[in-house]
Amino acid sequence: MSSELSICLLGFGEVGQTLAEDLASKGVALSAWDILFADKASEASKAAGSLRKGENAHDAVKDADIVISAVTAAQTLAAAESVAGALKPGAIFLDLNSASPGVKTRAAELINAAGGRYVESAVMSPIGPKRIACPMLFGGPHAEDFLPRAHELGFTGAKIFSTEYGKASAAKMCRSVVVKGVEALLTESLLTARHYGVEDTVVASLSDLFPGPEWETLSGYMISRALEHGKRRAEEMREVAKTVEEAGLSPLMSSACAERQDLSAAYRYALDNKSLPDMLDAILNGRSAERRL
Predict the structure, then answer these.
(1) Nearest to 229 by CA among 199, 271, 191
(2) For residue 248, how many C-alpha atoms fall within 13 Å in the half-sphere facing its CB?
(3) pTM of the model
């Protein structure tokens, strides 16, 4: 890979840091911008290390051939707005964020009007296991031209989904209704069951009704994801609710899920407990937290 290729990571949380590590081996010039860089003691600032950190968003992207946006869901459009006036002509803007089709379409219009080339992406699994190679759906009229370069950079799980903006996001958002919804349902169900001392019976009945998964292990994993990433998941579920509304439906389940995910984030300390019963007890005993589940 030519060292002349310049890539800017817009957002330096879990996804941005993972991509930075994987792209470093490709011989590209990397820069990054995150609003948390203003605080030198922040996790984002510490994780960036010697990576070139922009003075601001414009400075970070000014020389970039590819800008990869990996911010929180609620900041999707703001991130695009923050750099539109500084993009190199023809620069690829790869949007990995979990936002509604309407938001993605507006971001695309903004970037393309500024001379960039917007590529929609829907990340269809957690970033951790396969990292840069995790499954992604690319969308929009510039996606096909960018795909070979994306594969060279390590995005080997990426594939073309649609030439129309919003389709890839719609697939991701509809998937999240189920995935994040199950997390919220298990959290509410098993916390209540633990209070009454019937969680073993509930887990066993799930195994009878839905054979296949090891429900105690799965429940522990899914509840822990809500505890660890509840704030980010709540933002995503509000984008899911927008997606449902954009389809002319009432987002009853998605809105409730967003609230449950938001509440879960206050109990992140319960992750110190490895067993499901101990994790549930830690949450139930968390009387000093600001809000109770």
Answers:
(1) 271
(2) 0
(3) 0.90
Fold of 6-165: Rossmann fold (3.40.50)
Query: Where along the chain do the CATH 1.10.1040.10 domains lie?
Result: 172-284
Q: What is the pLDDT of residues 43-92, one digit of tens each?
A: 999 998 888 999 999 999 999 999 999 999 999 999 999 999 999 999 99
Cα 213 from Cα 274, distance rounded (Å): 19
Query: Hey, what CATH class is 172-284 in?
Result: mainly alpha
